[in-house]
């Protein structure tokens, strides 16, 4: 216990307990397979075609996930805010190269967690296995919600939903990244913002 500050254990416990009940002893076990990092803005924590071995728990800052085409065009898939888990899940599970890039949009603090060691802890401790399942559930729910929005909402409504999810999105994330996420141009986003502001 002396290796880890009480504040770090408690803050991590509080976050993980929002998913599932985790004892402080288990939190210490999780911290043992993790490394706390400060990452500067505009750094790729997961690169395209890299076979990943880590997942991340974002403590502060903003991270984007995007898909890059052969021509170099980027399509933003998601934005991650504190506190959230980040990683190319399919690539981690299948040990395949990542199709997505994860990049910091500002200076970030995060825990880098060894994925294989996490799976070993899942086999060893039922509470870690339950936590892992709950996190996967939350990731799937978020993915499904995003899919429904893309299919059923127009660009204005998708932008409104994004502002609900990230209230300060316009100051936190560059406009061209927001436009890419919404599947529109920066000019279209500017028009939508003006309409909303005028109303």
Main attributes?
Crp/Fnr family transcriptional regulator; four-stranded antiparallel β-sheet; 50% helix; 8 strands; Jelly Rolls; single chain; cNMP-bd_dom_sf; RmlC-like_jellyroll; 9 helices; 199 residues; cNMP-bd_dom; alpha+beta
What does this structure look like?
The longest helix is centred in the last third of the chain and has 27 residues, at 126-152. Helix 1 (6-16) crosses helix 2 and helix 4 crosses helix 5 (126-152). The protein has 199 residues and is an alpha+beta fold. The protein has a single domain (6-152), classed as Sandwich (Jelly Rolls), CATH 2.60.120.10. A four-stranded antiparallel sheet has the order 1-8-3-6. The protein has a four-stranded antiparallel sheet with strand order 2-7-4-5. Helices cover 50% and strands 22% of the residues. This is Crp/Fnr family transcriptional regulator. Residues 18-121 form the Cyclic nucleotide-binding domain.
Short description:
This is Crp/Fnr family transcriptional regulator. The protein is an alpha+beta fold.
Structural class: alpha+beta
Percent in strands: 15-25%
Q: In the CATH scheme, what's the topology name?
A: Jelly Rolls
The SSE order reads: HHEEEEEEHEEHHHHHH
Q: How do the strands line up in the largest sheet?
A: 1-8-3-6
The CATH homologous superfamily name equals Jelly Rolls
Number of strands: 8
The whole-angstrom Rg is 18 Å
Given the structure, what is the number of helices?
A: 9
* Mean of all residue-level pLDDT scores: 90
Domain count: 1
Q: How much helical structure, as a percent, in the residues?
A: 40-55%
Q: What is the highest CATH level, the class?
A: Mainly Beta
The second-level CATH architecture is Sandwich
Shape estimate: globular
- CA-to-CA gap between the ends? 55 Å
Main sheet properties: 4 strands, antiparallel
Give the low-pLDDT segments. none
């Amino acid at each position: 216990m002396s290796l880890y500050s009480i504040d770090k254990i408690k803050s991590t416990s509080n976050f993980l307990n929002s998913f599932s009940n985790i004892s402080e002893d288990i939190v210490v076990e999780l911290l043992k397979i993790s490394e706390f990092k400060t990452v500067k803005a505009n750094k790729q924590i997961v690169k395209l075609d890299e076979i990943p071995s880590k997942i991340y728990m974002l403590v502060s800052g903003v991270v984007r996930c995007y898909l890059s085409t052969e021509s170099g065009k980027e399509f933003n898939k998601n934005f991650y805010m504190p506190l959230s888990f980040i990683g190319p899940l399919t690539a981690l599970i299948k040990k395949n190269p990542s199709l997505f890039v994860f990049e910091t949009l500002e200076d970030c603090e995060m825990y880098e967690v060894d994925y294989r060691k996490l799976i070993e802890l899942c086999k060893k401790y039922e509470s870690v296995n339950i936590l892992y399942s709950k996190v996967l559930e939350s990731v799937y729910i978020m993915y499904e919600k995003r899919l429904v929005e893309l299919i059923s909402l127009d660009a204005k409504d998708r932008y409104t939903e994004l502002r609900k999810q990230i209230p300060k999105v316009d100051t936190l994330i560059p406009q061209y990244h927001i436009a890419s996420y919404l599947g529109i141009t920066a000019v279209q986003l500017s028009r939508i913002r003006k309409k909303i502001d005028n109303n």
